[in-house]
Known about the structure:
Elements: H1 2-24, E1 37-41, H2 59-69, E2 73-77, H3 88-93, E3 98-103, H4 109-124, E4 130-137, H5 147-159, E5 165-170, H6 171-176, H7 178-181, E6 187-191, H8 200-217, E7 223-228, H9 244-261, E8 265-267, H10 277-280, H11 310-328, H12 337-362, H13 368-400, E9 421-427, H14 432-443, E10 450-457, H15 462-475, E11 479-484, H16 490-501, E12 508-511, E13 517-518, H17 522-526, E14 535-539, H18 551-572, E15 584-587, H19 588-593, H20 604-614, E16 618-621, E17 627-628, H21 635-660, H22 670-705, H23 715-738, H24 744-756, H25 758-770, H26 788-794, H27 796-812, H28 821-848
Helix pairs in contact: 1-11, 1-12, 8-9, 11-12, 12-13, 13-22, 13-23, 14-15, 18-24, 20-21, 21-22, 21-25, 22-25, 22-27, 23-24, 23-28, 24-28, 26-28, 27-28
Amino acid sequence: MNRSINFVIPILIALLTVSAWWLLNQPSEEPPWPSRIQGFSFSPMRADDDPSKKIFPSLLDIDADLALLQGDAHAVRTYTVESTLAAVPRLAAAHDLNVTLGAWIGEDKAFNDQELKRLADVLAEGNRNVVRVMVGNEAILREDVEVPELIQYLDRVRKFTWLPVSTAEPWHVWLKYPELVEHVDFITVHLLPYWEGVPVDQAVDYAINRYNEIKETYPNKPIIIGEVGWPSNGRRNRGAEPSPTNQTRFLRRFLARAEAEHYIYYVMEAFDQPWKARVEGATGTYWGVYDANREPKFAFTEPVVRIPHWRELAALSVVMGVLLLVFLYRDSSSMSKRGKGFLALITYAISTAAVWIVYDYTRQYMTPATAIVGLLLMVGGIGVIVLLMAEAHEWAESLWLQKWRRPFPLRKVADDRLPFVSVHVPAYNEPPDLLKETLDGLAALDYPHFEVLVIDNNTKDPNVWQPVEAYCRELGPRFRFFHVDPLSGYKAGALNFALRQTDPGAEVVAVIDADYIVRPEWLRHLVPAFADPEVAIVQAPQDYRDADENAFKAMCMAEYRGFFHLGMVTRNERNAIIQHGTMTMIRRETLDAVNGWSEWCITEDAELGLRLFEAGYKALYIPCTYGRGLMPDTFSDFRKQRYRWAYGAVRILLHHWRELLGVRKSALSAGQRYHFVAGWLPWFADGFNLLFNFAALGWSVAMVMFPLYVTPPYMTVALVPLVLFVFKMTKSFFLYRRRVTATLRQSFAAGLAGLALSHTISRAMFGGLITGKLGFFRTPKKAEASAVMRALADAREEALFGFAFWLAASLVMMRDDAFMLDVRIWASVLVVQSIPYLASVVVALISARQHLSASLVGPMHDMACQDVKEGEQPVTRDV
């Protein structure tokens, strides 16, 4: 039954995916394209041409373009007579095409004079297919010339030609300057409702109304429509969305009305113009009926479909989804139907989104710059997909496992059969009273055979370590104290020293931090697990006893709890837990077999666990509290602790990458490799997010400094960080409420504390990649809280980043095109990217205010085992 579900659910979700593609691509009937239209705006630039750089098409290229339009249009309209474009009238005559001949008017007066001289020369050739003359194109709109100056140019041309003369401007310019109308023989109006943000379904009526407004205002002047069209790609402008579908709909609807009303019009435009991207932005490129390769961009008579090749894209989405599911379903026998359905739904959604984004991105013309950006986006996109799938997999396993596959039964074992345990307590410069509390807890252990070794390494002040030494003597022969100075290797060095001093009869080594107070049943409950000869590690969670001191520590408690309630539980299912250096037990002979603790690594605990897995041993995790320690007192110490953990993770991955990737033979299973890579993937995502943030700020600066040339990043790509942030936050809140049984306040506090560490983790990622010489940092306990200014100083980097993002978002919204949707989305991305940095500032300030009550967050339940019968799986109240 379970195997059949693995096929039924993906098939159902695949059908749902295909149905979604089908529903979004229902054909719509539109008026057919006329057999022959009035005219095209004609700029015969090829992909490599650029008139702004004086690179013009050859006469052969121009002639080929005119031949393509022959029979499909009565006329073409040109914009300049510069270079080879002066030959358009002569070449068009051979293809039975009339010409509205244009002369370009710009800011350069010398160029304007030369252009008008060239115009006069072309007109002097006497080409009878030239039917009218256009002096300037939107020169007033661009503010290249003043109205009186343009009037002078118009009058000058009207003196040397008998042909009707005009200039071309949008409708509102003609209404604003009636004096201009007096110097033209006809009005040439541009009707481009896209630029005015009009939705496509209202655009034709809008254009006709503007035409009629001009007609009513100037009833005695003939009117032609010099440009009318819609872009097939580019930036969304308020309600106006550029797309091939909307271009088709607008043009076919308008042409039907224009033919019925007998308008003279020129469709904007015949061919796409890649060169315009530099001067008009991305949208300026995509107004052509034909693309830059001279292929039609849409159907002229058939029903309109949003994505003509949607079937192929839907199939690709399904294939990609199936491949991802094959990986995720490899080890899902204990997952319920809901969990598998959730994974299938997320997987197909991700694959469909990925296919759509790639399709959407590749619709633009590729330049070296866009190709490089596309390659970088593809690499980043693969990372995003892997991250989302890992997060979704943890989500599904946390909620919808039908049963735990690796139970941890409690066993009653006679005292004479229990192995001897050596408990190691490494200490460095710890307050004597704190350490005495730890020793009192160990002295109260309900276990017959154990010793306690306290290893104080490198503490300089005798007043710190000597009272502990004396207290060990008071507790009896089970307690042995060692003060070693100097001793290299940090905590790992101390533990290796203790291992050499361990009683030869000890079969199990247990390690706790110097601030942990253990419960009496710790050893009695957990040591029997070593009856399985393959078990090398038995791990209990870290828990804390000072969460009620203030709001900051209550936040930290909530943040810590997620890992031990969620990540470690799911990891245990595949024998892939992260060993941590307190509340852990290791089989003595396996510890000796792998040469003890690694003194090169500052996270020696996690590294040891991985080495033991590579050697083929097992580890067991039970999510029940058997000991509680102390949390960092300040945000600064909280950050340093997490920096050490993240830095150590990078060094471990670099040291063991061959084993993790299967390049070097080891006993690691696929599940173990998955968890060790995927488990640390969110931290690496934070690292790459820092690169994204620098790029985002740099791009925003360019947008502000060069608004005419730099537009927001591609909108579908810019949406990815927003989607990723929402997905991760939703997952975190949902799992905290359901599995950690946290309150809404606790869930929010945990999320805030986690976000506050994002920048620290990102720095640790790069620090670990660059150098392997970070010193060990002991997290101070019972330290004095930082003052407010000190807290702000500790979070100064984050504060600067947060300010930079808000400043960038504000400046971006001051652009003239701030009404554009892509600008607003980009500003939203900048604001969202600032949230982790602002969270750091907020948490730093909270840590400085020790008087803030922990009740603001609320107490969390202990991870304490409920009463269980012998041989049953201990469970917690929350798990």
